[in-house]
Every structure is written in C-alpha cells, then in structure tokens.
Amino acid sequence: MDAIPMVDVAMVTGSTSWGIAVPEDVDLPGVRVIARDLTFETPYGLSQEWKLIELDGSLTFDGKTRNALVVWSHGNRVDEIDHSGQRRAFWVLREAGVRKVLCCATQGSLNRAIQAGDFVIVADVLELTQTPYSLLPGRQRFDASGKQLVCPSCAATVARVAGAQWPEGRRVFGIESQLVAAHAWGPRLSSPAEVLAYRTLGADIINHSLAPEATLSREIGACFVNVGYVTAPFQGYFAPADVNVVRGDVRDDLVDLATRVAIVALAEFDLDAPCHCAGLRSAQPENRWSRR
Ligand SMILES: [Zn+2]
Question: Which of 20, 45, 63, 116 could be bridged to 25 by S-S, CB 3.0 to 4.6 A?
Fold first, then answer.
C-alpha cells in the first residue's frame, strides 16, 4: 500500500479527460509524473488509480515547484459502478492536506443558449438530496455551509487560463455568469422529462459528478472549482432516438485542450488567496457531541 503524500492541490479527472492519460498525453513542458498507479487505503476501502505529478516553477503562481495528486475519473473503480468512490477519493485528499480541488467533468446543457463546446465554470450547485457519502466526522462536530461552494479565486484562475486558450467561436462562461449545475448520479443520461424538470428548478447544466465533489470539498475544508465543457446540447435531448445526445466530435476536439487548461490552472492557483472557503466548514462546540 502506498503512503499518501502531502500536497496543496489536486485534480479529480473525469469525462473531460476520458480516453487520454493525464498528464502523460498532454504536451505540456514542466509537468512530470513522479509516481503512477498509486493505491491508498481508506476506511471505506481501497482508493486506486492515483498519480503524483510535479508542476515546474516555470508554470506555478509562486514560481515554486508544486506537487499535485491526480485521481482517475472521480475515484471510480474501473470495472463497476460505485457512487461511493468520491468519498474514498476525498478521504485521501483530506489526509493529503489538499487546499484546492479542481474537478473535471463534461456537461449537458439545460439552456438553449449554452451550446456544445462552451466551457462552463459554475457558480452554484443544485443537489436536492445531497450526497449519502458524507465525510464529516459525525453529525454534530461541524456545520458545512452551502454558500460559495465554488471558490471565486480558483474560478477566476480557471477562467483566465481557459479564456486564453479556448477556441474562437466557443465561449467561456465564468463564475460571474452565475450558472447552476444540477446533479444526477448516472450513469444513464437524463431523459427529456428530467431535463425539463431540472431546468424548471433553476439549473443551467447537469452532470454526474460535480455537485458531490463540491460538497466533499467543503467537508474537507478545501476550495472547489470545476473544469468542463458542454458535450450534450439542450436540443440533443429532444432529437430523434437515433441521434446521440453526446456530441462525440465536440469531445474529441476539446479533450486535450480542456485537460491542458486544468493542469495549467492547477499550477496557477494562488494558494493564499483570501477566499473564505475553508472557514465555511465551521467546528461546533464540543458539548454538541460530548454532552448527552
Ligand atoms: Zn477558495
């Protein structure tokens, strides 16, 4: 079993980068894999498919070499559907002392104006049931706020990096657009009825992973931001059955670039930005659990 390294930043990969090795398949000088195929033991079982990477000082915000943990596809197991993988992954991130988490997932649009290939950094999440896989140590020890689930400082970094590289004709929506992500566990894609329901509730995009990771980031006291782009346009959900909802051509065009944006943003995060995220998980008085 591998020892969990201490790092400040981490990347949770997902459909944004499916089909390529991260970071090996992205041509980005200054990025080095220190170790791959790492497996960590957690109270919830083994967490697998981790890498430890090094980001050279030529890339980083403070000019210092920065190590980062990278986990494959939300902490999923390779051969089964297991929605609790994120809890194992974020338990590892908490043990590693991670302060900023960047999570990658493509998106379905619930809004005609947000089109295939648009890059969407969300501002809030809509997860009505919340995750059953909480990491808070007991019910009484912490309050976890639902405010500012997306870190404004990290979002500004991702928007700046994406804005400099995203293809002309495709848009980058930053946190100021105040777009909302709905959550469905998947893996089935949303039905037309579900799309209309989530849209009516106020969501602008939907996917299978973003909201639980925002919640788990809050629970470990870390900043959270998403990296993702729309592969399933709104109109696609209502097209004839033989028309794929997910635009594979868009995904193929953008998978390398989006992964590059994620890695560069990871390097460019300001670790000491005064964003208040960590304080939005607040310890409660001891008598809440000790006096009974
Ligand atoms: Zn923050």
Answer: 20
Please tell me the distance between residue 195's alpha carbon and the centre of ligand 1 in angstroms. Answer: 30
Whether cis (ω within 30° of 0) applies to the bond prior to 23 is yes
Q: How far is the CA of 88 from the centre of ligand 1 (A)?
A: 22
CA–CA dist 3, 21 (Å, integer) = 22
User: What pLDDT is attached to residue 131?
Assistant: 84
Q: Give yes or no for residue 39 having a pLDDT over 90.
A: yes
Q: What is the mean pLDDT of residues 22-33?
A: 96
Output the CA angle 8-13-17, nearest 5 degrees: 135
Q: How far is the CA of 147 from the centre of ligand 1 (A)?
A: 12
How far, in Å, CA of 101 to CA of 220, rounded? 10
Torsions phi, psi of 71, nearest 5?
-115, 145
3-state secondary structure of 289: helix
Ligand 1 centre from 161 Cα, in Å? Answer: 17
Q: How far is the CA of 267 from the centre of ligand 1 (A)?
A: 15
Name the residue type at position 258: A
Separation of CA 248 and ligand 1 centre (Å) = 33
Residues 57-102: tens digit of each pLDDT: 999 999 999 999 999 999 999 899 999 999 999 999 999 999 999 9
Give pLDDT tens digits for 174-220.
999 999 999 999 999 999 999 999 999 999 999 999 999 999 999 99
pLDDT (0 to 100) of residue 1: 86
> Contact, 133 vs 257, CB < 8 A?
no
Which H or E run includes 254? Answer: helix 248-268
Instruction: Identify the structural domains of the chain with CATH numbers, from first to last.
Output: 9-106+119-187+209-231+246-290 (3.40.50.1580)
